[in-house]
């Protein structure tokens, strides 16, 4: 008796339960069947599989997308829970199933030209008498020039603005404070904003009627500026500006550890996601600087 025949009874009973008790649709049942039968083709009858067999599935599934692994793992967990409930098995070996590791999405990237377009529009608007336009320029300079998170930026206290030192003290995630450099451009923009900032006694650098500028409003402002600059607003957000800060610093030769400190990442693994954007520069660096990098000409 082959694996498919030996397992058909248990699988069919499980699918019948899904249809009868959970009202699963035909497409859902077909998807469960495909996942279970695909697994049987690798390890044989599922109702007889032990923990060792399930533990080896990770090797077989190594080329699959994390979402596919997650779906198949879910189907198997439900299948073995059903076998236990029905008294077909006394144990549940599904704890040995591989755990899918979600792939961290790569950050959206803005080119230097797109950043220039964004600043050109913002600077043009800030040449007039509008205090809000000057504020928008200061916000943009802080996002791109210092890599602040949206929440960190909008909640900055007025006292955080440096007088002489070229640094801001920022309170990041978990209440952890860090020193963030402020560029000359950003300092000039902040100086202009402070000169026209409404004085309502607010302790916040970017006040609003109810406290400080909200994250939602900051997102809206950045997207509005993107539209004026002829950019796709879906591509641009405060977080994308932070990504641009990190990406362009790395392109310029910044060290990952320095970048980790500037971004306020607790784990350098979070910072390493930016290395993909500058692979060409890293290859050139090895070829140019490594003692054995030079190719001997014949």
Structural overview:
The chain folds into two domains: about 90 residues, Tyrosine recombinase, N-terminal domain (DNA polymerase, domain 1, Orthogonal Bundle), CATH 1.10.150.130; about 180 residues, hpI Integrase, Chain A (Orthogonal Bundle), CATH 1.10.443. The chain contains 14 helices and four strands. Helix 1 packs antiparallel against helix 2, helix 2 crosses helix 5 and helix 6 runs antiparallel to helix 7. The N and C termini lie far apart (about 65 Å). The N terminus is likely disordered.
Draw up the topology in text.
Blueprint: H1 3-21, H2 26-43, H3 51-55, H4 57-60, H5 66-85, H6 112-125, H7 131-146, H8 150-154, E1 167-171, E2 177-181, H9 184-196, E3 207-208, E4 211-212, H10 215-228, H11 238-251, H12 256-263, H13 268-271, H14 279-289
Antiparallel strand pairs: 1-2, 3-4
Strand content: under 5%
**Would you identify the CATH H-level superfamily of the largest domain?**
Intergrase catalytic core
Helical element count? 14
Helix/strand order, N-terminal first: HHHHHHHHEEHEEHHHHH
As a percent range, the share of helical residues equals 55-70%
Strand pairing plus helix content: what structural class?
Answer: mainly alpha
Which radius of gyration do the C-alpha atoms yield? 28 Å
Give the N-terminus to C-terminus distance in angstroms.
66 Å
Mean pLDDT score: 83
CATH C-level of the largest domain: Mainly Alpha
Please identify, by name, the CATH architecture of the largest domain. Orthogonal Bundle
Task: List how many beta strands DSSP finds.
Answer: 4
- Low-confidence runs: 1-7
- Which fold does the CATH topology of the largest domain refer to? hpI Integrase, Chain A
What spatial form do the alpha-carbon principal axes imply?
elongated
């Amino acid at each position: 008796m082959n694996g498919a025949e030996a397992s058909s009874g248990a699988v069919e009973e499980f699918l019948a339960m899904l249809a009868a008790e959970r009202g699963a649709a035909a497409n859902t049942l077909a998807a469960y069947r495909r996942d279970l039968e695909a697994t049987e083709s690798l390890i044989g009858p599922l109702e007889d599989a032990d923990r060792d067999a399930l533990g080896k599935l990770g090797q077989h599934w190594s080329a699959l997308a994390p979402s596919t692994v997650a779906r198949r793992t879910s189907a198997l967990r439900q299948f073995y829970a059903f076998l236990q409930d029905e008294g077909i098995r006394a144990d549940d070996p599904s704890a040995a199933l591989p755990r899918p590791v979600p792939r961290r999405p790569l950050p959206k990237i803005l080119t230097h030209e797109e950043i220039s377009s964004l600043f050109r529009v913002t600077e043009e608007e800030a040449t007039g008498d509008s205090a809000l336009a000057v504020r928008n320029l200061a916000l943009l300079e802080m996002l791109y020039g210092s890599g602040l998170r949206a929440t960190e930026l909008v909640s900055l206290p007025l006292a955080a603005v440096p007088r002489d030192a070229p640094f801001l003290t920022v309170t990041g995630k978990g209440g952890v404070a860090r020193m963030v450099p402020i560029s000359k451009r950003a300092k000039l923009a902040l100086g202009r904003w402070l000169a026209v900032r409404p004085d309502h006694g607010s302790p916040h650098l970017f006040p609003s009627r109810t406290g400080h500028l909200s994250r939602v409003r900051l997102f809206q402002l950045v997207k509005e500026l993107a539209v004026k600059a002829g950019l796709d607003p879906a591509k641009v957000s405060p977080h994308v500006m932070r990504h641009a800060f990190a990406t362009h610093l790395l392109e310029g030769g910044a060290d990952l550890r320095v970048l980790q400190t500037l971004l306020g990442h607790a784990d350098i693994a979070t910072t390493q996601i930016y290395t993909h954007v500058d692979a060409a520069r890293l290859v050139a660096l090895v070829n140019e600087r490594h003692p054995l990098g030079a190719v001997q000409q014949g």
